[in-house]
Amino acid sequence: MTSTEQTSGLGFVGQSVKRVEDDRLLRGEGKFIADVNPEGVLHAAFLRSPMAHATIRSIDVGEARRARGVRAVFTGQDIVDLTHPFPPFLMLGGMYTPLYWALSADKVRHQGDPVALVVAESRYLAEDALELIEVDYEPLQAVATIGQALQSDREQLWEKADGNVLFDAYHDYGDIDAVFADADRVVTERFSCQRQSNQPMETRGTTIEVDPETGHLTVRSATQSSHFLRWIIAALTEKESVMDSIKGVINQKERRAAFGAAVKEFVTKNKEELDKQDNTGMKDQMKTDRSTMLHMQRIGLGLLGADQYPTVVADDIGGGFGAKGSIAREDVALAAAAIELGKSVKWVEDRVENLTDGGMAREEDLTISLALDNDGTFRGLKVDVVMDQGAYPGFPVGAGFTTQIMKVMFPGTYRFEAFQQRSRIVCTNKGKYVAYRGPWANETWARERIIDVAARALNMSPTELRARNMMGEGDMDEAMITGPTLDVTMSTKKTFERAVEIMDPEAFEAERRAAADEGRYLGMGFCAYHEAAPGPRNYTDAINPGTGVLTAESARTVVEADGSIKVITSQMPHGQSHETTYAQVAATELGVGIDDIELVFGNTSRTPFSFLGTGGSRGGPMGGGAVRGSSREVREKVVDHAARMLEASAEDIEIVDGNIHVAGVPARGLTYADVARDVAGVSAADDAEAIEARCDYEGAGDGGWSCATHACIVEVDIDTGMVSIPRYVVVEDCGPIINPAIVDGQVRGGVAQGVGAVLYESSHYDEDANLQATTYMDYLIPTAMEIPHVEIHHMETLSPGRENDFRGVGEGGMIGAPAALTNAIEDALRPFNARVTDQYLPPTKILELAGVIAPD
Amino acid sequence: MTTVQPHETTGVAFTLNGEAFGADVEPRRTLSDVIREDAELTGTHLGCEHGVCGACTVLIDGQPARSCLMLAVQADGADVTTIEGLAAPDGSLHPVQQAMHDAHGFQCAFCSPGFMMSTIALLAENPSPTRDEIKEELSGNLCRCTGYETILNGVETAVRLMGADRGGAS
Known about the structure:
- The structure holds 2 protein chains of 2 kinds.
- By secondary structure, chain A is of the alpha+beta class.
- Helices cover 33% and strands 21% of the residues of chain A.
- In chain A, the strands form 7 sheets. A 7-stranded mixed beta sheet of chain A has the order 3-5-1-13-10-11-12, with helices on both faces. In chain A, strands 7-17-16-15-8 form a 5-stranded mixed beta sheet, with helices on both faces.
- In chain A, a hairpin with a 2-residue loop joins strand 22 (653-656) and strand 23.
- The N and C termini of chain B lie far apart (53 Å).
- Chain B contains 5 helices and 5 strands.
- At the A-B interface, helix 1 and helix 24 of A face helix 2, helix 3, helix 4 and helix 5 of B.
């Protein structure tokens, strides 16, 4: 065991406590999904389409079925027969969500679309058999770009949709036309962001373990969201005939009662949120695709008639960045195969599969108009966002929800009299769009870019223009124009002023001139933003009413009869160091050491329900708040019981280093084991729950904003097109910090992905929708050579009188970096009158911008 | 030259973390798969299986190698070290492991075995590298979580710990 140096139970929060999870991970004893090998497990491999868009005329798996070591081959049609389609989720009014199955049976819609599944005795043999499958494809015209998707005469991906535009809606706040007419000028630009990929170092993977006696499924998976995966696998694989399902409903009294009770509890607890929900999206979906209703009914019947649902277990996860919050189509196919065979089946995807179908993001075109007066006062903002969701909708969070977060966050920290967003979602023959670290981040990129463009038009400095329009302490609207309430935690302006002070733009001008004399091009860029982490209560209503139901967070704290303390969370750690930070929070409450706390996560038979698991910068504020709540209540119970044992008054009890005693008399103290054993009784098993409490945490109330300003200096080499980053500064404010070293790590990691986004990473498709980056030779993940030192300055704005004031910090690094970098690059290229409109600026693009080579 | 049929197995023997290891393997099987599946040492991780990410790095006769690109049969007779071979027999961490803990080196830590094996190879060649040398040597290992800074700090911490072990100036 690596020992943590800190032993005192007081004041862990705020210290860079060393990581509890390190011991197993640094020894190579972590348990990642590829390390799970149940007895007799079979291995799966998927056959994937080489075509971007094609009809499947026929598929011949005969030879593959006969191949050495092969136990089964499932075609797309086999899986369609065994499962239900993915249902629409988080629908928006007027949006069409196509129904699709785990494997494709009649049509493929992107390179990498899975069409068959081989189950064999080893991965090698499974892959051998893939080569024996013959698929006859009839190619269809591919839709490779947003521009093509917007054309009405292009081949359609989904027959029930109206063209390839799945959603088109306007949201207006204030009188946009009047404000635009009245403003002195309007600055307009169109920005484009390339397709990127989350790329955790561990790919996706799942093992479906089948209990040979009972048939019970244990789904072991690298998932950010274990409860949601459990429900989806249960829902989509219960494929009894309708009659059998009905018989099941009638016969399974216990099951039915339990299901009914769970639904009742959920509805009661979330009544307020559910009442607010707007069902237009569902109604529109039903109108466009009547089969939705039939599938939903069958899924419902299946769930009701089922004997049992799977257990999902997630252990160590090698990163996710949002991609592992999506439910993989492959997981549903694997579960169906395992049920059919009665055997455990394992699949760990390879990197080519991950780059092709493991999740992509960020591909958006944004036309943005900023109306302002000649003195620099912002008046109105109008944006037209087109998001390329690829072929299949990300599930559960995909393009639809993301456009709506973007809509809420677009105005940022600036005051506008009116705002309008047009949101369109198109489908193309590309890998699916998923949430990626700050999924809405391109609003910050486009807004902070247009501000620089406008500053140049007004011959004003970008920092001056930002300062003039930013809301700050003493001058803050009650709410953003898009709805969410603002308060003191929206401290962007403070971070901005501090960043300007640190960067000293005036001194930089001298540096720039000196460099220019040597033929070197330096530029400086800023980006300021706030993010909901988790945001005020009305934040989710502003996105889409009633979606707050997704964000509930629970924790339990348990003292077992032998005195062991377990904290049980619905969060699903995958690199964020929850085991350390939650131990800090719980140990502080309970007066014990860090090593006295064991965090339990990822196992649906033990953890409280949560839709999201880990995602949305909720781990600190929501998960931390829940852990504090349940631990505090346990402490009260322990103190009350110890007071009786010590014949003292509860007010006089204190706990230091696990010693529960009357203040001033530590020598006559009790241990947690003494108290727990007294509660549980001598005959109780050591691991019996003696004292426990659960906290269903709803957040600290208003506020909950995380804020930051990123600023950097770049040097652009116009001979090579290379960009270096001599200085990168982040001034961030996520409120009181639980563990500074861990917060710094989150900030740096986010910035690194932002550097990758601007300079290195592109999931580029050619004109026929063939993916050009299917290995790490083409999809360039930045190395230690490319990532700059990130100078981090913390501000810790407190919300007076509010506990659990922690605010999330996982996503911000990546929200700020693209704008700061692209602004700095345009600034460096000022001598060439360059206008940066792309987020992706590889060397060739830089050389084009500098006029060294002709545009492509 | 012998010809081997696709599914024939062939004997391979090498030293693995100081102990003799032998198995009958298909010649096409990678060293990483044999380490993970036959020797059941799952600390060596597979990130890309095409030799770029470095997560699978092991030491072959003290030199770093991508075990995903190497066939197990190629390791015949070699001395192979994996992450599981680093801690001392009493369980205490290797200075590089300890240093990564002290420096908050990793987050998800999926890439960590490869980084630590590369670091050990680097420090064996160059016990006191500069920051730039560390960056360059570790540029064959990818990390998606940390932005590398804490890993580089970890290597510098290891340099100090190992210098102190050798009785040198820390």
